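Quality-control log, excerpt.
Job 1 of 2 completed; input and output follow.
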Amino acid sequence: MTSLKRWSTAVLDTEVTGGWAVVNGEQGFLLDDNGVMFPREWLKAQDLPVIGEHGIGHFDGEPVFVLVLKGAVEIDGCRWQGLRQFMLEGDFAVFQKLGYAAQISTWTREHRYCGSCGRPTQQVPGERAMYCEHDKLRFYPRISPSMIVLITRGDEVLLARSPRFVTGVYSTLAGFVEPGESVEDCVHREVMEEVQLKIKDIVYMGSQCWPFPHSMMLGFHAQYESGDIVPQADEIEDARWFNIHDLPPLPASRSIARYLIDSYVAQRLGTAEPVLPG
């Protein structure tokens, strides 16, 4: 069974009983020796500091809800784990489910009150929206479009590292789309800002929802045109050309960054191309 069949999003009625739930709080996601899904009614009996509950979809055919907590809490026999750790290990379908739950949790915390008048908002039945009765405003989960691009020059790929990366890991360039610009404009701008290079022949490769916290990553391949690498201060710790036969430590295999790199390497070597996860 594929991950796409195992997990699907949906707006579920929180007034119904039963089902399973995941718990998101300041410490990440709650889990025990059986995993991250708990009987929903059992969780509700634990007197947790819940600030919101949302029905988020179905996993292996079972309804799943997320309980959003205010503050840190400890539960006997359970522990907490961050979303990135779920990305690096275990079942990718579980990461998809938790990634969506994390985005809904962020939205819940950020829109408990109206951004215009400050009054409490209410969930809209049957719709993924919070509503302010006073201002007649609806607030939907935010998705921020961003680009990620692999720049190549023959058998060489341009990879860089941010100070925020795991030590030694290099990845592709990425950045958020600014208001008023196309994604293609963003690719050119970000590459120039981050490494001072001109690129050409931009080709769209695919997209991936990236819940850190709410990005939609649009992946591209581009060819080098001209310029010398000049890393952007405070943003790029190092950037250089790597031969495909001598690559540094790379991002997680489930990421779109790794997909872009692996796809190009496969193309140059004439091997089977990878499949974009998600």
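Job 2 of 2 completed; input and output follow.
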Amino acid sequence: MVREDGKRNFALRESGDDESSVFSGNTPRQAALKAARRLDDVGDSEAEAERHDVRLREKGTDKVHIYEAWAWEEDAPDDKPDWMPDEITKANVSKEGIEHIEE
């Protein structure tokens, strides 16, 4: 379901039907990128980052968006604000498809 501000909520599906976290975004990809930045296994570079499957169920629908996701740590830019840490986590995702769940 779409909120007033145009964002949609996506529940991260882990083993089975366990939905542990909710990410919001205008698109499923935006929510998948947020989920990917929170992966436990973060690589030293994009090329070395391990790929993981991320499954996001769009709230209010039966759609499950499936992404291949990976994340890595990188030095923050030189012109970073004071509050930003020296190392930041970056992520990327690749859409694998959509499944429809039957309830």
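Post-run check on job 2. The radius of gyration is 15 Å.
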